[in-house]
Amino acid sequence: xxxxxxxxxxxxxxxxxxxxxxxxxxxxxxxxxxxxxxxxxxxxxxxxxxxxxxxxxxxxxxxxxxxxxxxxxxxxxxxxxxxxxxxxxxxxxxxxxxxxxxxxxxxxxxxxxxxxxxxxxxxxxxxxxxxxxxxxxxxxxxxxxxxxxxxxxxxxxxxxxxxxxxxxxxxxxxxxxxxxxxxxxxxxxxxxxxxx
Length: 196
Known about the structure:
- The chain has 196 residues and is α+β, with helices and mostly antiparallel strands.
- It is built from 7 helices and 7 strands, in the order E-H-H-E-E-E-H-E-H-E-H-H-E-H.
- The chain has helices at 17-31, 40-48, 92-107, 120-129, 143-147, 155-160, 185-195; strands at 4-8, 52-57, 60-70, 75-83, 112-117, 132-134, 169-173.
- Helix 3 (92-107) packs across helix 4.
């Protein structure tokens, strides 16, 4: 069987965006829980900005996640983690999560990294990386982030509680408690090229 490669997504990976969006929608329907909806353009931009990670087996899509900064780059989220059903139970989610986490730590070493999730597997991965459960008040107050929840089926819970509670669990990684992360030199070179 061909190896599954996990790499920082690039503009040439835009051809996978519709498959990614379909996989996210199907997972949300099966789980019956909320997953914030994103547009084709949004995910394509993440790929162009080296703010996404994709897993591929040859040319076949296996998994995806992206990162975003909030609150003047004081906060970073690793979001949209999805693994295609054909590749589940093979450690792909952990490899993607580890890569997005390292990418976020390398690009914004002083930012707090947070995650909102209703998935037990993601909570377990976050815990192993050093995230702690927190209240929603400990997260960014950036209104642009919270508008992203509008595409979730559970947004009414979030709004009814004044953004204090929802179905998701909030988890936060505070970089002050950990050492800086390292990415391979070719990834660092690509990030530097994009930021110039």
